[in-house]
Every structure is written in structure tokens, then in C-alpha cells.
Amino acid sequence: MTMENSATTGSEEIKVFISNRESKCDECGEELGRKAWITLERDKGALCLSCADLDQLTFLPAGDAALTRRARKHSALSAVVLKFSRARRRYERQGLLVEDEALEQAEAECLADSDARARRREREEERRAEVDSRYVQEFAKRVRELFANCPPGREQQIAEHACRKYSGRVGRSAAAKSLDEEAIQLAVRAHIRHRETNYDELLGKGLYRGEARARVRDRVEEVCARWQGSGEQRAGNRKPETGQT
Questions:
Q1: Are the beta carbons of 65 and 203 closer than 8 angstroms?
Q2: Phi then psi for 8, rounded to 5 degrees?
Q3: What is the pTM of this model?
Q4: How many angstroms separate the Cα of 217 from the Cα of each of 8, 23, 229, 239?
Q5: Cα–Cα dist 152/136, whole Å
Q6: How far apart are CA 50 and CA 168, in angstroms?
Q7: How confident is the model over 149-198, as pLDDT tens digits?
Q8: Which residues are paired to 15 by β-bridges?
Q9: Could you give the CA distance from residue 228 to residue 76 in angstroms, rounded to a whole number?
Q10: Of the candidates 65, 54, 56, which has an alpha carbon nearest to the alpha carbon of residue 17?
Q11: Is the dihedral of CA 186, 23, 102, 114 positive or negative?
Q12: How far, in Å, CA of 42 to CA of 232, rounded?
């Protein structure tokens, strides 16, 4: 079965493929290399997780049925991760992409299981290792300068998400590393879209990104203006949607 067929048959769950060949995102044009994580979107082709608005999700490997079941139940947006097995000539599940909060809630429900506690510690250690703390602090400081009224602590959350080393997210771009205002704006808008609107829920219900973004655009701009400390957008402040998160 090809990726295209696998992505469009069976259930309506979102599918992410671990590619076995050199891959390129058809939206942002980035060369992703081998073993890239991609999804397929109608009329768009292969997309990296950032352009598909799935890079805010956390990977939960297969193996713990109870944890997987609970995480899926609590996650408004999730995706199944598949990899092609040459030996078996079929796609096999590797795990799920789920929301951080959903995984944390599922882990809390499994705390009696010592293995679940160990997994949580390992995941937190890996996350800390991903983050270049000095750069993150500079990024967070710039977020606070541009969005003085954002809730306490949000600038840190935005910076840590945008700057994870492995991700290819907006915070790893050259513009972001120079703390360019447009890059900061993109990171903040992506955070608002996922945290202050029902955007993830709309994606989880099967809406395409364009329609989902259109439904939440006014809310994103409203929150953005409030965080900037004015009732109106500054001239030229509104940026086109680019798919970066």
C-alpha cells in the first residue's frame, strides 16, 4: 500500500509517516532528509509536522496500552505514527502523537505503575536536554518586550516550544536566532492559536488547516492585540498564516 492510499483509507484518524527515503516538505520547501516525519494533505502533498500544525504534539511510543488509551481519550488532537516494514510489506504503528496535557493527565492516572513514572522522568530529562537555555531566555525576553501583557510565564512556554533543537520550528530559524520581530510574531500567534482557541479541536474533528485557521483567526488577532497592550493592531503587525509553529 502506498502512503497516499494508507492515508486515505480506513479510519479518519490523522496519520504521520516515518519516511524511508529522502523527503521534502511541499509547503515550506525544506529538505527533511531520510526518516523524516511527514503527513499527507489533500491538494498539498507531503508536509513536515510544522507546516501540518502537528509539531506541538508529543510522541508516545507504542507498548503501553493503558497509557496510550488514556492519552488518546484526553487529547483533542492526535495522530497515529506509521513506518513501513520492508520485511512484512506493510505499514506498522509506532505510536501516537498526542497533546502534552493529555499525556500528563494519562500518566497521572497511571502513577501506580512505576514504569509510567520512569517514562515521565525520562521524557522530562530529554526535554530539558533539547533546550538551549540561554537562547530560550533571550527569546522569551524578546516575547515579553513585544507582548508586554501576555500572561506571566507564557513567554517562557512560547520560547521553549519554538526553540526545541530537533524540531525545525520557527525558533530554530536564522531570523529567530537574531530575534527578528516577524519570527517572534509567528511563534506567539502559533501559541495563541493552539492555547487560546479551539483550533486543535477543529483539526481533531477533521477540518482542514485552512478552514480551521479561518474560524479562529479573529480570536487569534484579538488575543494578540490584547497581549501587545492595545485594542488595535499596530500598523503592519498582522502577518499572513505560514504554517509555522
A1: no
A2: -120, 0
A3: 0.59
A4: 28, 31, 19, 11
A5: 16
A6: 7
A7: 999 999 999 988 887 754 445 444 544 455 778 888 999 999 999 999 99
A8: 80
A9: 29
A10: 54
A11: negative
A12: 36
